[in-house]
Amino acid sequence: AQKITQTQPGMFVQEKEAVTLDCTYDTSDQSYGLFWYKQPSSGEMIFLIYQGSYDEQNATEGRYSLNFQKARKSANLVISASQLGDSAMYFCAMREANFGNEKLTFGTGTRLTIIP
Amino acid sequence: NAGVTQTPKFRILKIGQSMTLQCTQDMNHNYMYWYRQDPGMGLKLIYYSVGAGITDKGEVPNGYNVSRSTTEDFPLRLELAAPSQTSVYFCASRRQATYEQYFGPGTRLTVT
Q1: Contacts of B92 in chain A (CB under 8 A)
Q2: Which of A27, A43, A79, A102 has the maximal Cβ count within 10 Å?
Q3: In degrees rounded to 5, what are phi and psi of residue B17?
Q4: pLDDT (tens digit, 9 = 90+) per residue, B26-80?
């Protein structure tokens, strides 16, 4: 089974609109973390936001928020007031740590294009 | 403060050749990671290290070796390069207390 599933290979959104990028995950661990990274066309990986499994509040960082629904095993990224510079690939990732061994799994990504 | 630096930026190898991808961080981070990203895919973890002298395998370690003799450096060695190792390689690091990883700019490797 896929550990991280991103079902939207591509999305087109009008500038200034909000956008939700979907991510579902699969783990049997109680303690884990979920990340979102942005990869512009230049290729670098940029950290956006992190949510721990025990965090009660949804994580927010500026225009980014993570809609964490533990029972549904989903960790969607919400970008408010989208900008042209938001056009990029977005990756959801999960961290699991078992007995000191760290596992990091990335999804296949969603390509977001912001239309002026 | 340069962050995470990787050399080289690009490399073409012939099948069977060997090379070392260099990674250095100047943030005194304990944790360091090597990933590969195949075209159109997410990143896959090759190896990671939780401190000098300690390394562990990730999801796709076959064909690679690592060492961590200092906090700053985490080189990745490819022995007997194969076309399946054509990929973009990213090095990353983080502090022990947080989970945010800082990535280097990547090395684009082609094996022909």
Answers
A1: 45
A2: A79
A3: -75, 165
A4: 999 999 999 999 988 889 999 999 999 999 999 899 999 999 999 999 999 999 9
Quick check: A103 contacting B, CB < 8 Å?
yes
Q: Which of B43, B102, B103 sits opposite A106 (nearest CB)?
A: B43
Q: Is B71 exposed, middle or buried (0-12, 13-18, 19+ CB in 10 A)?
A: middle
Chain B: nearest CA to A14, how far in angstroms?
A: 24
Assigned token pair, A87: 């056009």
Amino acid A32: pLDDT: 92
Tell which residue, A75, A62, A81, A78, has the closest CA to residue A106: A75
Structure confidence by residue, pLDDT tens digits, A2-35? 699 999 999 999 999 999 999 999 998 888 999 9
CA distance B17 to A13: 45
Rounded Cα distance, A65 and A36, in Å: 10
Using alpha carbons, select from A85, A96, A14, A12 the residue that is nearest to residue A48: A85
